[in-house]
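Q: Joint fold for the lines below.
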Amino acid sequence: MAINSINGCIGCGTCVKTCPTDVIRLDKRTGKAVIAYPADCQICHLCRMYCPVDAITITPDKSIPVIVSWG
Amino acid sequence: MRNSQENSSISRRHFLGLAGGAAGMAALVSMGVSTSWAKNNPEIDIDNIDHQESETDVLVIGSGMAGLFAAVKAHDAGSNVLLVSKGRLGSSGQTPFAKGIFAYDETTTNFSIDDFVNAISSSALGTNNKAYTRQLAEHSLARVNELRAWGFFDSPLYFNSFNKPIEERNITVKERIVITHLIKENGRIAGAAGFSLGEEKIHIFNAKSVILCTGAGGFKPNGFPICDLTHDGTIMAYNIGAKVTGKEWNDGHPGQSKNAAACFDGWHGMFERKPGTTNVEIHHDLGVDLNYKAYMMGSPIKMGRPGEEKVNDIEGGPYVPEEFRNRKPHGAEPDSADSKSRNRRPPKEGGAPPGMTGTIVGGSSAGMAIHKSEGLVPINDKCESNIPGLYAAGDALGSYMVGAIYTQIGSSLAGSAVQGAVAAEAASEYSKSTALPVNSKTKINLIREEILAPLKREAGYSPAWVTQTLQGVMIPNFVLYIKKENMMKAALAYIEELRDHHMPMLRAADLHELRLAHETSNMIISAEMKLKASIMRTESRCSHYRLDYPEIDDENWQAWINILKGEDGSMKFEKQSFGSWPDNQGSI
Amino acid sequence: MVFSMLVGLPMLFWALGDFPRRTVLKEVISIVTLIALSLMIGQFFLTRNSRKMLNINSMGLVIDLHKIIGYIFTGVLLLHPFFIVFPRYFESGVEPEEAFITLLTTFSSTGVILGIMAWLLMLTIGLTSIFRNRLPMKFSSWRLLHGILSIVFIIVASWHAIELGRHTDIAMSIFIILLSVSGVLLLLKRYFLNLKLG
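A: Joint structure:
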């Protein structure tokens, strides 16, 4: 599922800014990064490369959203 | 709710048990099942959303390579500059993934600048704008040297080297702000408006001039890191009357068939390389040869090593000029690795271009044209549009710098740097002779309403769903690449349906979805432009291939197609002869 | 038995937990750090309080072990912030120096603040142990200081590990909490007994 997990986050927020497609947000309660919009991950790895504590794991597969007939 | 696209499994028993109950909907939402047809419940207090107005001489929109130079050079030319970006400096658009930058250095090449321009024109079959080709050669080395001084070549990540000159000059940067509107007052540019992704805030920028460095875009295709690029700049400018060009061209990058969405993996580590420079090296690449082959022979296509096998060994298909045949497809992103970094860390697969090894699939960059062949129509060689005060640079400018096919390797990144600087000086000059325009309150209020509209809709269509439908219509090889009139008209009927019925009903539950809603609108208009321009161009040339008009038609089509919004709001088209500026403003 | 628990349990939780697996270097660093924390908490049991529990007859041996483990793993944990950014020397991405600065300046994070506090406390404990003989205090007051600092340290360090740990899941958290609480209680019990007796 693209961006897969965040472990050991220190909440610096670099990944939030770095993600071109706005997938990651800081959780208001814990202050840590959460994968808020995984479907929009373009698997470019910028967040992982910029993370100071190497907390982000990304897999090459992507779940395809289900097709429905109403918008 | 806020992420209707999110996937999750749900057991049949669980589903049946809940579906009949009143709690069914809420349960589905909580499980992340697509409930795009459900009621829109925005999490935002729309009526109390913040509002911030800023003033500047030169507003630069976009923070890739073009935006960097636009901001730095406008500042150095004495203007007050504000840089606003949907993402982060050096980390949005295609710039972060471009690893090769062309530098024309007369000490290391046998090509004179004239030779270079002529060679590009020869590969580009006349589609290039020679003024911009020449400008690339003349300025690229200076820009590359500046980048070197900022440390650009020392890291695979560009934030630090981009931030250095910005910080030294104390240029204001506003990140994670989605610009949705350009503002025009009394026939000239007056600023831009948008909203913040991180906080509930509308931003109005009042500016004497605006430089669009918003890149090009696509249909959020899988396999290419351009899912944040949706032609925002082009469509905003089109909406206020700017001329747009180049929609019929295609970037023909393939992707790997396994994990086609994984662009990082598909490029085999290229994103992790430090950038390097490229020398004069002219090709005729990344058109739709492979798409033609796949169309005629079926998938999968297996690519051999470069030079091992002729790519185009079937009858017919796109024309490649004699002197550019049998060359190895360089392929690598325009901005592929340079020779230096290649020596340090040789790419896997014996040097085959990324995305072109093993079994491949098409459409990895679907919706995007060849770099710099689509975007705003320049009225001169100063990156100026037909709207006074509005400039564009890089992929946002339809400069045809290297034509409608991939010719000079690494020119994309170099061209963005060069044009950013050229646009900056022109915009700065313009700003000095202009007073700060006054934005009318009525217009601002109207724009504010338009920005927030998707949040206010109680029901409507989710942007994710509309985008998916658009992708299904536009991305197939037989629509986007191997073109035929009847098929494009059929696709156009779908796109017009999306435009007329779904675009006005896009809804958003949060700021992320609000961004998707605006992006989706831009993609729909861009799809309409792409189909109509492709139908109009009744010939095949460079990266535009018509199955029903497979030949080059020099008699009728030594011309670019410009698109503009008519007085009545309809999409209008005009031809502009190769080698001339628009509106018969002389030859190039 | 106790040692195999202190070393084995964190490794077990590491192995069973649903954590992404990374390069050998990174995993080795993680495991060493986890074991270091576990053994540091274990120091509470390597004292004369629990000599009987450990079935070690020689008090000297207990103290020697306490010292050896203390110095080695204090060293490991003092280096632990550097270990986090160290693998960046071998891979593409943010420079390790820059990552380290970001790490140390993210003051918005409780975990980072706790980590810095724990690091300083640990340094103090280490230094006051190495130079105990040169300190102008009686052994009994030093021992009291050592104990109090250790209690404060282990609370802060455990909290830090639970807050920020890459491998902190429920099992690991419960293990750290139980171990810390029992260690601290053991020490407090000794102090209160001493007070009563005294």
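Q: Anything notable?
A: DSSP finds 16 helices and 20 strands in chain B. The interface with chain C takes residues 155-157, 160, 269, 272-273 of chain B (CB under 8 Å).
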